[in-house]
Amino acid sequence: MIACWPVRNASRTLFCTAPWLLLATLLTGCDLDGYPEDLRYPPRTDVLVVDKPKVDAPREQGFERPGEFPKVILAGLPEKEKEQLTIDPANLKDDQRNVLEDELTKRFGTPAAPRADIGDAALVAQLKLDDDTLRRGSTVYRQQCLHCHGLSGDGRGATAPWVNPHPRDYRQGVFKFTSSSQDEGRRKPRKEDLLRTLREGIEGTSMPSFRLLPEDDLEALASYVIHLSMRGEIEFQVIRALVKGEESNVPETISAYLELIRGNWQGAQTSLIKPPTYPGDTLKTEEERDKYLRESIARGLGLFARAQAEGNLKSAGCLGCHSDFGRQSAYKYDAWGTIVKPADLTTGVYRGGRRPVDLYWRIHSGINGVTMPASSSSLTPEEVWDVVNFLQVLPYPKMREKYGIKLEQPPK
Amino acid sequence: MSVGLPHGAEAHKHPEMSFVRKYIFSSDHKIIGIQFLFSTLIFLVIGGTLAMGVRLQLGWPHADHGWLARLLNWPKSYGDHMPPEFYNMLFSMHATIMIFFVIIPMLAGAFGNFTIPLMVGAPDMAFPKLNMMSYWFMWPAFIIILIGFFVDGGAPANGWTSYPLISSLTMPVGAGFQSPAGAGTGYGQICWLVALLFVGISSMMGSVNYVTTIINLRAPGMTFNRLPLTIWALFITAILQAFALPVLTVALILQLLDKTFNTCFFLPPGMTTVGNWHAGPGGGQTLLWQHLFWFYSHPAVYIMILPAMGMVSDIIATFARKPLFGYKPMYLSLAGIAGLGFIVWGHHMFQSGMDPRLGTGFMIATIMIALPSAVKVFNWLGTTWGANIQFTTAMLFALAFVSLFVIGGLSGIFMAATPVDIAIHDTMFIVAHLHYVLFASSLMGIFAGIYYWFPKMFGRLMNEPLGKIHFVLTFIAGNCTFFPMHITGAALQPRRYSDPLQYKWLESLQGLNIFISISAFVLGAAQLIFLVNFFYSLFWGPKAGRNPWRSNTLEWTAPSPPPHGNYETTPIVYRGPYEYASPESEEDYLPQTENLNGKVAGTQPVHH
Amino acid sequence: MQKFWSILFGATMLAALLLFIVAPFVGWWLPKNVATFGGGIDGLYYLILAITGFFFVLTEAILVIALWRFAGQPGKKSVYQHGNHQLEVIWTVVPGVILLVLAIVQIKVWADVKFIKNMPKPDGTTQQMEVLAKQWEWRVRYPSSARMAEWASNPKAAEDFGRNPHLDDIYLPNEIHIWKGDADKDNKVLVHLKTGDVIHSFFLPNLRLKQDALPGKTIPVWFAVTEYNLEADPQSTEAEPRWKEKDIWELACAEFCGTRHSMMRGKLYVHKDKADFLKWLKHAEAEQDRHAPLASR
Q1: ipTM of the assembly?
Q2: What's this model's pTM, rounded to 2 decimal places?
């Protein structure tokens, strides 16, 4: 054995390999945070759900199995019905699709360089849809949100099949938890609603709270989500119009829908619903408040549980969907074609927020995209507060005892 | 004392066998050992590659991997980042493959099979057909674990420990055989469970064979006190396997039932909905899995080190040209480690919600296990003191084993101390410790064994200079990779994190993490030198004689490679295996079977 | 050049030793400890570091010296020696005693942190919260200030906090708020740890605290801190109180729980005293009991 061989060889080997080690670091690319510059939003290929089925989802369907999403849009419906409710982008003519893609890229940019060329500078300023904020938003989105909500906000990220409820698909332009007026047209959330969701998470789902991110990042994220929603909704509406044959000129169609959509967003920002003063706040003494609460809860229980109006006692009809106070709710289709259940109100878990004002907004405006209707036309604000008070007490056995609410054991 | 082998080699004549009977479905322990060796080397490459992926992510958590994303077909929705689910799969499969498909079959299967009959002087194992079955039972395991990468949902991604509930929730029957709680818990997890069942069965067959062969088939004169430590270690390991594996088998079957038949062994009552899926009525406990799993897996880690310790003892004695220091303490400490190894499993569960009073008991037993290990280290050092050391590649790896096992063993004391474990449990400190004992010790012991027994297995020598380069690179890069993990672990960087940069307190460690990753890449590349050396030498290495290392043990008296039946005549053993530098011999070694004329075996005074 | 190997081993082990020596000075070390029992844990760590460091240097030095001195020469024969009984006894008994002593001295620290009988009782003086670990966040439930006031006069009422949620409990994600308190009076915090789905682990590096959350069980965890990290923010107002973090103390999940295991980040906020904590708590109550949207939003 040549004893000095190892030394010569070893050092030579090391010298020869050293440069490669350094080069190895370059393999991984210099841009460590944002999207790659050449990445484009992919053209939409999944079906558009344009209408909600009129029927409930079959009970055996339940929630689909883990991992099946998104193959199970509108599961349980016969094929013919599905066809009536959906539109397939494959039916777009090629030239139309190309023009659509180009226009979208012109107006909304790429993931690495998003923009919002929506024709209304004031709205862009109000919602902070400027290029810098959007770029920052897309960087944070990529790290925190992309894996669930997908590249184009389609809710079909890699993690999406494993969580139920599924991550929101922004491309329909529908958001469930809003505090803005829902009077007409497509109802949009205020930016503050999106920020609430980011800060609090959605309890009872896999949407976590992001309140530990810096405030600027949260603002940028909300802006980016609005951007994805606008882009997605334009694409949605234009594809629908083109495939149905209602329109044929792509740029004009885009402009028309853009006007409509940005009008809706703008309207939402300035139409915050301010509930009238909570009656309990106007009362001075402990006794009065207690008495008010007791009566309010009793009224709320009545409104909730009454199947139909009896004389001058109203029925809010809640038990119809929230069967057995939500413990045996039927399954229903939502606007995205997936299956949801009206909330089990005995758990004390509220996805849209647990503050009384959040519950007020849910009851008053309903929840977009699902069958929770607005009660604004049928219940007075005081009655809504009654239901809210009842709901707040419902999950707690001791409180139910105190206010005389009986909850039977649900059948197995 | 055992005499009377079933039949001597001369009487053992077969008609000329076909290639398939001789080399594929062979019941010759040497062929089976070599089959294990080749199979596990392939898995070593797979497991090592997975580790490169792990370090790629930990070094650069937010990087773009354009071409890699394309190659591996990562979901487009990730842009070009490594998906967290993919990272989780990487570390889970890296550990599973390294433990169950590399180290255990390499030590027990390859070395156990090859060396035991040769070193005890037997013509073959006690149950050659059972031996063949133990190899072929590994094949379903090989195939199924690899299929796991390609099934719907991908390979399991829940850690090699597969704790419920994340890995065990029932998969709802129907289309889409997946399970809630996470990706990689569906078909892939089933593959994991079934593959491990086959590994367990194979190992148990092997254990029976080894114990029987060592007890019953020793050559005349081969008393237990003259057994080489390799055999002592493999003997004790086989007993460990036999007692521990049934518990793992039970655990695997219970989880399999939970996943496929709606049983609730690990599902507590009251968890009726997990992530909005109905989980089942419950009635079980998640801790049950942890107890059953660790009851096996702790002895498993001793299964993974004891044979290496035995081999290293023999290799050091051979190349130090000096008797092993403290033969009896050495095998007694092997037994001590094994025995104590059965009562310490709870140290993996100190923070798990197990009653902390149990923790105290486990803590005391665990701290005491350091003692027999320390005794062994001191004895190895004693062997090198006053020696005449030949620095062959095998010796270098054996010495590295000793040196790095010290580090691995000492770092274990930190986590044995329950209060310190509160802080360092599930951090990189544990990862550092486990890699020092598994990579820097077991795997280096395996390399030592391969370089040492290669001439006997294949009749050719491996290339020494290349071996030494392999050693230098592995030693340096290995330490550069795993030693800094003690530091990142002391800084409490958690393990199994795909993105440590989410936390302010970890940001300053990123430089160290990058250094570790680069070292890991060098380490991975260095193993190519070994593979080239191994396969080149198989065909074109210089021919080896019977005893190129001038070693004492029995196998070096047989031809290289030994024929079917091993020995032309039954060997007779006159002394222990460590008679190096003996005054009774002119050479600096004195084989066990050497009949010194006129002197009766076993009556010469031996110096202590 | 046979001596090269001794140098290789020696240099590598020396580099390892140097790394441990240099690391604390460049910030690669244990994070800052603010727990009362953290000192005991850190002390034990340093004790073990000293003992293992000593044996590391001793054994590696012997090995390096042996490789140097006894590097092979042709024609030489080693010492023919099978062992030394006396040495065996020494190096069995001495480490054995050290290990046994090490085992015994640490029992108290472990018991102090983890044994239920040593945990603070849920009475009027213990700060309580319930932490529900979920995929992939921490939902924390605090008692309201009214309830806390009730406990002050009726300690027995504090016992069922872990079991019975109240309507006016405050729910917050990912934030642990406590106050520093006075030693042995009201500085002890009792956490009722639960999980809503899979196993998670409640890990606060700055408190040296870790406890796995098991499905189906509520596990008590306790700690007390020695410092606070929230100071008054000059921009704080009556309506919108604000604080500045002088030190960032984080909460992480330490048991693999799926995709976002590494993103289950929380924060530990320690208020200067109970009054400051109540200021925050009352604001949180107002937020949660809000019957009207915030004026500024």
Answers
A1: 0.94
A2: 0.87
